[in-house]
Design a protein that fits this description.
Elements (H helix, E strand, L loop, with lengths): L7 E3 L2 E5 L5 H11 L6 H9 L4 E7 L8 E10 L2 E9 L8 H15 L4 E7 L3 H9 L3 E6 L9 E7 L3
Parallel strand pairs: 5-6
Antiparallel strand pairs: 1-2, 2-3, 3-4, 4-5, 6-8, 7-8
Length: about 160
Amino acid sequence: MNSGSGTSKINPLVIRPMTLLDLDSVVRIEDLSFPHPWTRDQFTAELERELVSRCHVAVMEDDGIGPAVGFIMAWLVEDELHITNLAVEPEVRRGGVAAALLEQSILEAIELGAMWCQLDVRATNAAARGLYSRFGFKPLGTRKRYYQNGEDAVVMGKELET
């Protein structure tokens, strides 16, 4: 991937920075993916935090225009990338979209000086935990009753290689 240009392409997937124009498809994916989804206002607020937020979408169009089929939200603070949200359209899950988004975010963070990456994942989300494990994330602990429905979160992290 060429993360230096700000856009990465895996045929036919294009990963590019998220804009306000992507919010209709992002909010739809969010609503389909989580029991307590983020609101449009929360996504808007993240996009407005330009100095911290790193937000990308995956689009299945060669020109990078079209509805998002996945997205990743992350914060880059000092030398740490914290992934806050990652979701993929149900019809294309397990097709490499989440992995491409995660890889792009990590590569970009490394270019910007990040040395550590951390995230929280639902304890019951075996697919997501498997993805993160394949990327070298290790469980660091548990946040009891972290989610609105009382479910625990597993904290996972990894050192980033430069």
